[in-house]
Structures are given as C-alpha cells and as structure tokens.
Amino acid sequence: MYNIVYTNENPDWPVDIFHRYYVHNQLAPSLIETERYLITDDGINDLQDKTLIYPNGKFNDEINYKIKDLLNKKNFILTFNFDHEAFWGDTIKDIHNYIDRNDLPYHKVFVISCDMNLNKTYEIARKEYNLTNQVNVVYLDAFIYQNMDVFFEDQKLIHREHFENKQLRDKIYVSYNGNPKTYRVKMVNELINRGLDKYGLISLLRDKNPLILDRDVIDHGNMTTQRYPIDHYEQTYFSLVTEGYFYTKGFPSHYTHISLKTEKIYKAMLLNPYLLLGGYGTLSQMRDLGFETFPELFDESYDDIKSASDRFNKVLENVESVCKMDRNKLNDLYHNVLVDKVKYNQDLYVNFDRETHSKGFFGQFEWEI
Questions:
Q1: 155/135 same-domain check
Q2: Is residue 253, in this structure, part of any structural domain at all?
Q3: Where does 44-159 have alpha helices with state H?
Q4: Where residue 209 falls among pLDDT bands split at 50, 70, 90?
Q5: What's the distance, CA 135 to chain centroid?
Q6: By CB distance 3.0 to 4.6 Å, which of 57, 149, 213, 274 could disulfide with 203?
Q7: DSSP H/E element including 174
C-alpha cells in the first residue's frame, strides 16, 4: 500500500504517474494499491504506510512548511516527476535551489526520469554545476506502462495488416520529425544531400518549407494528431526514429549521456523494424527487456558509440546501406525474417511481465521504516 499526497487541490484528482502506469494500465491493471490525499487534509500526519508527496501545482510558503514537517516522519518522501523527460540542465539547479531554500533533507528527495543513463547524467551534471549534495534519482521506463493504444489507428494496439503487402514496396523507410530540433533538421538535410530522401517518407514540420506527409501540426493534447498511418508501413521496410533527445553543440556535457525510450521507439517497434537516432545504449536495453532488434538489416554497433557525432554518422551510413540494397533481397529479408521479429515484439509488449518489472521501479525508493 502506498499513500499519494498531492500538494495542490484538484477537483478531479490528478492522474499521477503511479495511477496512470500502475493502477490504470490496460495491459496490467492494479499493480499497486494506493490511497490519495491532499497535503492539507486532516490526519495526514498520522499516515503509517509508505507515503509519496507528489507536487502537482505551484509551491507556496504554507505548502513548503508542510512538506518540511512531513519529511521529518520516517514514512514520507518527496518526489519530483519527469516521467517523459530527462533530468538535466536548469531543472537540476532549480530542484537543488528549492531544497536548499527550504532546508529539506536531500536523502528524502527522489527525482523520477525516463533517462536510462540517469545516474551518469546526474553525476556529470553535479560536477559541472559544482553541486556537493545529491538527490536520489529513479529510472522509470514509462512506455512499458503507458496505454499506447491512443497512438494507433482505431486505438488498436496491434496491427499486422501492413505485413500482407508482399510486393516490392514504393519506399524503403519512414521518418517522422514533428518538432524540427537541430539534429532532426541535420538528418533530413543529410538525407536530401545524399539523395536518400527519394527512398523515404519523411516529415519535418519546420516553419519554412515543411515536409508534410499526413498532417501539418502535432498537438500533444490531442493524441489523434500523433497516430501513425498504417499505409505508411505498407509502403516501407523500416522506421528511422529520431528520438526526443540527442546531443548537439552548445548543450552542457552531461547532456551527451541522456538516453530516452519514448513513445517514438515503442510505436515504431510495434509496427516495423527500426533504426534509432538517439542516446547510446538504447538498443542494448531493449534487448535486456527481451525485445528483438534487427542486426540482419543494420550494423547495430552504432548503439555502442558514445560520441554523438560519430553515432549520427553511423546511423546515416545505415540508412544509405539499406537504401542501396537489392530491392528483391530486401523484400525477401523483410518477409522471411524481419516480420516475425516484429510480431514477436508485439506479442512480448502485450504479455510483458509488468508486475515483476514494476517491483524494480518501486525498489528504487527508500523509506526509513
């Protein structure tokens, strides 16, 4: 049993990450039991079970005082949640400043992030910013638990109809680039410069000269604008995934270690083979979870390359290599080998042992009881 104590009132009670992933998950519901409270409720001081203080709004002096008082109790900890993001840059400094201003105990503060290299990222950041104290950092693989059906056509998680097209396909790859981040623009420009754009279905929603496939806007509040059209997968053999974080010049050095698995990689994995422009070690962790990757199609040594520029070039080389393959050979490899691996990944995702996996997540928290 866990108690969740919110810092701010919300008449609809917010769906925090613990409920979103571990109570209301469609594939593995009710993984934990919880009770929910507001920090100003009577009797909060008398709670006995493991209790997580969950900020869900702005702080004020009254809330800060109450948090400090509750953290004196052995069964209370304070959490900061970045379940879809990395913990880096000014956010690190802001949380340290908040703790220092309010004289909170660092050992009772836990920051949740989906950066697989979170410990390394934070270690280097503390050195960069000359931070002597440290919070606890907790890794969350959010999209193992996310209700992913909202990202797919007809809200149907598993699609296999695109495998039935046995003819030579019109294109080789599909690559979605909604947010024109620097590295995405660079990748698209390199594909164009090398003449590889003619082999791909490519979107890049920049202000000037956007490349548009099926939509010209992405609204993160409207999941229908983030759904991948299945017909794109009937026309292609693999996805070139450009993840949400990739080091580019000008960022602090700890940014080089950030490696996230967001919905982008899971959506791609559930539809086709994929090549990833993201942090190092991502494929390795996917394999650790039991998922198949695609060394039959790609030189996956790019996943081990810590230099962002070298990893970028290796990913680009992979695109070029596959685009230059004999189309009949590629078609045979896709249908005789790769499709079965995609189906395996689909089945594993649906049947993944989330109960056991969730224990690893909650085991990262520590209470003094």
A1: no
A2: yes
A3: 61-70, 90-101, 118-128
A4: confident
A5: 21
A6: 213
A7: strand 173-175
pLDDT, tens digit (0-9, with 9 covering 90-100), for 97-113: 999 999 999 999 999 99
Task: Please name which of 79, 144, 146, 147 lies closest in space to residue 113, comparing C-alpha atoms.
Answer: 79
pLDDT of residue 104: 98
Express each pLDDT in 152-194 by its tens digit: 888 899 999 999 999 999 999 999 998 899 999 999 999 999 9
DSSP symbol at 85: S
For the entire predicted model, the pTM comes to 0.93
Q: Which tokens belong to 1?
A: 């049993």
In what helix (H) or strand (E) does residue 50 lie, and over which residues does it extend? strand 50-54
Q: How many residues make up the chain in this entry?
A: 369
Domain boundary among 140, 160, 193: 140
Distance, in Å, from the CA atom of 148 to the CA atom of 248, rounded to the nearest integer, reads: 29
Q: Tell me which residue range forms the domain holding 294.
A: 150-353
Kindly state the DSSP code that residue 196 receives in the 8-state scheme: -
Q: How many CA atoms lie within 13 Å of 15's alpha carbon, on the beta-carbon side? A: 8
Which residues contact residue 243 at a Cβ distance below 8 angstroms, ignoring those fewer than 6 apart?
260, 261, 262, 264, 265, 276, 277, 278, 279, 282
Query: What's the pLDDT score for residue 109?
Result: 98
Please give the backbone phi and psi of residue 200, each rounded to the nearest 5 degrees, phi first.
Answer: -125, 160
Report how far residue 116's alpha carbon sits from residue 157's, in angstroms, rounded to the nearest whole number: 25
Mean local confidence (pLDDT), 322-348? 98
d(CA 111, CA 136): 6
177 lies in the same domain as 280: yes
